[in-house]
Specification:
The chain is of the alpha+beta class. It has helices spanning 36-45, 69-76, 93-96; strands spanning 2-8, 14-17, 22-23, 49-60, 63-66. The chain has one domain (2-97). A five-stranded antiparallel sheet has the order 3-2-1-4-5.
């Protein structure tokens, strides 16, 4: 699975391409397959996102999980303060990144 991540141009938040727009929730990320470059060109051209790039990910029963730890941290948030993560109420939060 290939997904597109970027930063929101206005807020700087980490965002994920859903197939129709952007979301801060990686679980809403859509598989772009070979169309990643086209999505990036269109969305950066429209100034909807900045620093977009395609990454590898897997989808399982728990949702979409980026393949590389750097991207998992971007998707989830800080690893040292679980109360500041994207999913602070998730009891399995500590296991999600690694």
């Amino acid at each position: 699975m290939k997904i597109v991540t970027a930063n929101d141009l206005k807020s700087g938040a980490v965002i994920w391409w859903t197939g129709v727009g952007w979301s801060i929730d990686v679980d809403e990320a859509a598989d772009v397959g070979e169309d990643g470059a086209r999505v990036i060109a269109r969305e950066e051209g429209a100034q909807n996102a900045v620093s977009a790039y395609v990454i590898d990910a897997e989808k399982d029963g728990q949702g979409v999980r980026p393949a590389h730890i750097k991207e998992r941290i971007r998707a989830f948030g800080p690893t040292v303060r679980l109360d500041l993560t994207v999913k602070p109420a998730d009891a399995n939060a500590v296991n999600w990144v690694i």
